[in-house]
Amino acid sequence: MLNDSLTTIKGVGPELENKFSLLGVNSIFDLINYFPKRYEDYSVVSKISEIKFGKVTIKGHVRDAKGRYVRRGLHITEAVLTDESGSIKIVWFNQPYRANAIKSSAEYFVSGNFELSNNRLTIMNPSMELASDFPANTARILPVYKLTKGITSNTIRKIVREIVPIIRKIDESMPEWILRESNLISRSQALELIHFPEKSVDIQRAQERLGFDEVFELSLASLLNKNENNQEHSLKIEFKQELAIEFVKNLPFELTQAQRKVVWQIYKDIDLSKPMNRMVEGDVGSGKTVVATMAALMVISEGYQVAFMAPTEILARQHAQTIYELLKPLGMSEKLGLIVGSMTSKEKQYVKDELSLGNIKFIVGTHALIEENVKMEKLALVVIDEQQRFGVEQRKKLMSKATEMPHFLSLTATPIPRSLALTFFGELDVSILDEKPNIRKPIITEIVSPNTKLEMYKNINSELDKGHQMFVICPLITDSAVMDANSVEKIYKQLSEKDFKNRNIAMLHGKMKGDEKNKIMQDFIDKKTDILVSTTVIEVGVDVPNSTVMLIEAADRFGLAQLHQLRGRIGRGSDQGYCYLMLSDSSAPSPRLRALVSSNDGFKLAELDLSLRGPGAIYGVSQHGELDLRMAKLDNLTLIKNARKRAEEFINKNNDLKQYEYLYNRVKKLRIISNLN
Ligand code: ADP
Ligand code: MG
Predict the structure, then answer these.
(1) 216: nearest Cα among 673, 674, 663
(2) Whole-model pTM?
(3) Residue 591 and residue 595: Cα distance in Å, rounded?
(4) Where are the domains of the chain?
(5) Which residue has the least CA distance to atom 24 on ligand 1?
(6) Domain 444-599 has CATH 3.90.470.20
(7) What is the position in ligand 1's atom list of the atom closest to the CA of 255?
(8) 370: which of 213, 305, 397, 523 fits an S-S bond (Cβ 3.0–4.6 Å)?
């Protein structure tokens, strides 16, 4: 029944079915789980003599309905709404069918905004339906849904009302003791109330229950994963103090306190024969690479192998170079290898042979690392940089190259608020690098509109005159008919022919060949070019300390977290960095952009982004809509803690998951998509 198509519902034909599928609603189950995004309260029925401005519902007769065209394309229907206390005018625009549909003898509910319009008190475009005990579109708390062309909230309400009998029969998904102890309503009740609340407390109760479910399911999945992971056996990597001291002595800088703490934690983790499963969260520039290298150091000194995977070739090459320099003073740099897509097959084969012979102990690479025929029998540590860029499958593939379960370390620059980390990544231990090295100056960020460009160009020129370099970031490669935003090609042309004629300019984007990209990047690092016009391919990790200016075209097209990442590409040396956020037009800047101007703190920005866009959109889990929490408010720590505690109890009590069919299936799915093993 729940899997039935929408056309089995009264009033839904193939056409409407198609429109619903645009909303991702393909079955009755989907429709039931298509939750309103907000509500409008029209539940109080008032007397006409007593109404005030604002949302009102009146029960009365509608008479004298007359429709006419005021001019071409503008039709007006006027009518008089009367109850026992008085009467008012009501007006509809462009609903020519109205007048004929009204029965003068019938009693109606009319809901809408009572307001002053053209010097008259009226309700404009009210919803109206025959008065009944079970109205869909009037006289109640009206759910408002996310819509698409051809579907109104009215349509959705009417259709959902048809399936209330089905909703009422939905099985409970939770053990009774959880509902009792956490004071939750039943699942079917929650699903009915989310669409048909009678009182506002109903909405709250329904959201509580459905939000609890989301967090509970995720927690259960991650706890089960964690338990399973803890039963695996890993290679125990002994801590060698002298080696660590030697490494630190040779660094060109002092480790921050935060780096020391995290490295120490990792050393403790890998010194056990159960696999480490740790995520290091650190804002851009917090120095994650050296932390990972220190972890790797212990592993390779024991004769085991380390794989370090990065999302782009540019980044992998840069990491290889950095790590090479870090290992050189210890005489360990010859153990390092690199594998990336643009290498010739001969070069790749050489690296693969060296890997399988065990001569290469530390391999840095891109996705090329997960090719079938890369063998690493002694792989004991997997490091994934910018882990949010990889899918679960890719991680799994890399991990599976080891004979024993390798220790796992993921690095991410996307700061994840605690509440979320606990929920999404429950099976991971999280370390936070909450300190940035040395005396780095906060980047000066400004919002620029197309008509204040010249002032900005002056500032840019004075930076370039000092020998510094600039990134220009565009949302597109080529101009597109679909999206009106500046492209790399267009801006490249404009800058090199006009605005910065006398500078060396290059462009970079993802459609270019690997070698070409590397050359362009290398030229920029070698200061052969002053300005690099690029897509977001440079977003992740790239380190060019001489580059002090970033201009982001159509900044309003990017997400907050992404903008912060991009900005992290500059101000990496000791010089002042400048970031210009160019608006696509002269409309007012969004709260997102303003937040960026006022803060350089990735954590603060992440919290804000979370509240603006929801977790799915931010943490790269959006490809898995399943992981998106729609109901649970992530700032509701009480709910999250409670759901998590219940999930622990569920496991400790040895409750049999198979008994709860819906829960079982959800958890199974979540375990697969959230799992890191
Ligand atoms: P991210 O955390 O963004 O990956 P990186 O590891 O790329 O940061 O480090 C950014 C820069 O900071 C690099 O040039 C690195 O050498 C430098 N760095 C790392 N740790 C320190 C430190 N403790 N003091 C000074 N510079 C550091
Ligand atoms: Mg990095």
Answers:
(1) 663
(2) 0.70
(3) 6
(4) 1-41+149-169, 44-139, 241-271+287-412, 444-599
(5) 437
(6) no
(7) 23
(8) 397
